[in-house]
Amino acid sequence: MTPFQPRHLLTLRNLSRAEIERIFSICEDLKAKFAAGVREPLLPHRVLALVFEKPSLRTRVSFEAAMAHLGGSSIFLGDDAGFGKRETVADFVRVLSSYVDAIVFRGKRHAVLEEMAEHATCPIINGLTDQSHPCQALADLFTMRELAGKLAGHTLAWVGDANNVARSLAEGCAKLGLRFVMATPEAYRFETDFLAGLKAENPGFDFEVTDDPIQAVRGALAVYTDVWTSMGQEREAEQRRRDFAAYQVNAALMSHTQKGAVFMHCLPAKRGEEVTDDVIDGPQSVVVQQAANRMHVQKAVLAWLLGSHGG
Ligand code: CP
Ligand code: NVA
User: Can you tell me the distance from the alpha carbon of 155 to that of 250, in angstroms, rounded to the nearest whole number?
Assistant: First the structure.
């Protein structure tokens, strides 16, 4: 007998365009119901485990709240679970997935997420690794869709480090037909392999990289930035502050955007580094809407992965 192969969400490359659109349409439905005071119990008695090796506000709370709204529950496993220390990853995951219906992993190394997926008998969801942050990118693209009505043909301008969030957004843009322009210093760009793979899988992908933030933001629907130093890179912080100094998103840069353009950030932000207070708190900023959408999109991901949304 072939063992049951659960569906995972490891990166956006694992999803087809139709699947992303399906998740968005479930999200739209659940978000509207939530706004009307309806919390549909689509996952009664289901249990979600969250295994986190790094700190979190949004990812942890939005998943836990999502599970509670859907009629299920969640168990948070931090340092004291001894993940990666007391036993092998395989043993940990085989056992954990016999207790719960899905696992969210926030990890230091993407390879460990992949190892978990190999051994799990329930879906594994990437809650951020050094390589990618697909749930964040789904919420961001859903936010842009809310703002623009449709996504294809629009431009997302990324200003800063080609990090985990940037990788997932690039994957999402490639799938959904958005142009992805990045202003990034040469030493901090995407690896050649990553980009070549993405272009090969999405032949129409409109990608551009420049060292000129002004050129990048012109004509963009969204200007997106993230911290210059991600979790785990703290030792490089000083060097990075120097290398990214010309890539700050401030009022001067935003003055080159087109009418209706928005400012986006996954949060948490290092105000005064990658973004100034006037921009992140200003009228173009949609950072709170993005963060709020994390919960709605993840409800849709959970309902989709666990096959409980009939519509
Ligand atoms: N954006 C995001 O993932 O935030 P947390 O690190 O707080 O989860
Ligand atoms: N790039 C950031 C994202 C945090 C949500 C990090 O990995 O620390």
Answer: 19
Helices and strands of the chain, counted as H and E runs: 12, 9
Name the residue among 150, 194, 156 with its Cα closest to residue 13: 194
Query: Which H/E stretch holds residue 82?
Result: none
Residues 30, 20: Cα–Cα separation, whole Å: 15
Q: Return the ligand number nearest the Cα of 161.
A: 2
**Element housing 218 (H / E):** none
Give pLDDT tens digits for 62-84: 999 999 999 999 999 999 999 99
Q: Which atom of ligand 1 is nearest to the CA of 62?
A: 8
- Whether residue 2 has pLDDT greater than 80: no
Report the side by side order of strands in the sheet with 262-265: 207-210, 179-183, 155-159, 222-225, 262-265
Q: Are strands 179-183 and 155-159 parallel, antiparallel or unpaired?
A: parallel
Q: Would you state the structure tokens that stand for residue 7, as one six-digit string? A: 């569906």
Interior CA angle at 205 toward 20 and 253, to 5°?
95
- Catalytic residue status for 136: yes
Query: Rounded to 5 degrees, what are φ and ψ at 79?
Result: -55, -35
pLDDT score recorded for residue 307: 86
pLDDT confidence of residue 311: 60
pTM of the model: 0.97
- Band (252; pLDDT cuts 50, 70, 90): very high
Tell me phi and psi for residue 254, to 5 degrees.
-65, -20
Q: Give pLDDT tens digits for 105-161.
A: 999 999 999 999 999 999 999 999 999 999 999 999 999 999 999 999 999 999 999
Is residue 279 predicted with pLDDT exceeding 90?
Answer: yes
Amino acid at 218: R
Q: Tell me, using a 6 A CB cutoff, whether residue 53 lines ligand 2.
A: no
Amino acid at 182: M
Cα 204 to ligand 1 centroid, rounded to whole Å: 31
- d(Cα 180, Cα 208) in Å, to the nearest integer? 7
